[in-house]
Each structure stands twice: as structure tokens, then as C-alpha cells.
Give the backbone structure.
Amino acid sequence: MFDLSNIFNILNPNVAFKHPLLLLLLLLIPLLAAYYYFQRRKRYATVRMSSLSAFEGRSSWRGRLRMVLPVLRALAFSAMVVALARPQATLKEEDITAEGIDIFLVMDISSSMLARDFAPDRLEASKEVAMEFVDKREHDRLGLAVFAGEAFTQCPLTTDRSVVKSFLSELKCGPLEDGTAIGLGLATAVNRLKDSEAKSKIVILLTDGVNNAGEYVKPLTAAEVAREIDVKVYTIGVGSNGDAYAPIGRRGDGQYVFGFVRVEIDEKLLQQISDMTGGRYFRATNKEALAQIYGVIDQLEKTKIEVTTVKRYSEEFYPWVGLALLLLMLEVVLRYTVLRVMP
């Protein structure tokens, strides 16, 4: 059903009318205008003359200004109708209580992440999708750990998503000793989460290879520690099926030499880690699949948000009453002073 109050809400969306049906009285204005027009000749005496040529172009300013009087009265009537409809300003107060989740992203930055079976490569695709995921986690604390042959914390837990995205964007292969120390990467994140008071703590571990470094921290040992402190681990294996164009060596100037190599991911290990901690294992063979995986995790790990809305109203009809009285007074003063018509 059409609500006349919507017309006024365009000017101020916080204003609502308690009695919006009274705004239908505004439809009387065109009717009264038509009545005034057709009754105008009856109101004023007409003097018949054989010719009006002598009066052409001699209309007085008072005659022209008298046309304003009915307009003032119509405006006063409109203002009074709006006042009768009781405009009220709605003041909303929202109290948001968010039970956030602590999320640690663990990213593999070994040289194999430069493989070009993802566009432009696995690392860049993983960074882009991870940043999109970070944007969605408005009420959570996020951290970032990286690993290759060794591991370290790139960004501790923070609610500042822009900081996390900045660290993600700067990730590159090379700063760490090459290799794939999955256990070290997971242990680094778990160590950061052990003192967390969040009711839900998760790790998203992304890798494209087989654990071949950091032997003093076994991946399953890190998973057991995660389970003990209630950290859920989601694991993601990235890489196409078959062969991929990836680094096979490095020249003296630091540049990588590329060639086709077999894609090998220890899916059994990643599955064990996720099963032990109550998470899930995913395999991403392209960037689109990776984005879908992060979307699934986003849906699985929903932040609990409670929103309490309090509404208060303030009466806004007083200015309309004042405007109506002012217009009526102006119309009366003009009608009986400078625009007075002698009988």
C-alpha cells in the first residue's frame, strides 16, 4: 500500500508520521484552487467598458501581488495538515555485542608456491583470496603466520583488518630457508592462540607440498597440542592435478629457474590434522575453488552477534504549526493593509 509519508521521508529518512492518512487532506488544495479560480469573477465587481486599450500595460504592483494571497493561505493549510499528521523523528540506538572468533592464517611461502598452475601463481592467488576472507570477518581477531623451511609470526592477533591485509599483500617467497615445515607453521599459530580467551579458536593452514623440514616439530604433534587447547584446524592443499610449471632451481643472481614438476601434496597428513582437531580438509585445484573453500569456512565459523535496538521519538510538528501561523498572519496583514480592496 502506498504511504504518503514516504514522500517526506525522502527529505529526512528518520522522520515518520503518526497519522499519515491525514496527509490525504493535501488533495483538497487543487480542488480549492479550482474553486477559487472559477469563483474569482463573482468576488470582484466588473466594470464594462467599450474599450480597454487605454489600460493596456498599466496593471499595478498591488494587483499582481494580490495573487500571492491565496498561495499563502494554501501553504498555511499545507503546513497545518503536516502538523496534524504528527511528524516524529526516530532516534535509533544500537548496542552490538559480538562474540568474536580468533583466527590464525598459516601460509606456505616456500618456492613451490610460485608454481603457475594458478594465475598468476599459487602465492598471489592465495593472498588475494585470503584478503577477501579477512574483509568478511568484521568482529574477529586475526593473525598471520608464514612458513617454508622455518616459520615465524608475521602478524599477531588483531582486530585491525587493514593491518592483516597489509602483511598479506607483502608476502613473498625467498626470505625463509626453503622447504615445507608444516609442523612448525602450525605450532607457531597454536602457540599464539594458547592464551586466547575466545570461545572459538581456529587455524587455516594452507600449503602446496609435503612436510620435509622442521623435523623437531612433527605436524601431528602440533595437531595434538591444538586439540588440547581447543583449536580447530582447517587445512587447504593448493595445486592442480598432474604437472605444474614451478621452480626447479635458483641461479646465482637469485632468480628462479622454472620447469614442469609433479604436484605432490600430502593430503593424508592434512586430512589427519583436520580430523584430529575437528576441522576439515579441502583441496583447491584453481583460484575459483580456493575462493569457494574460504567461503565455506566463512559460513562454518559464524561470529555470534547480538544487536539490541532502542528507539526514541521526538515530536517534530511544532515548526509546522509555527510556519502555518506565520503564513496566515502574513496573509491577513497583507489582505487588510497594503493589499486591501475598497468596496
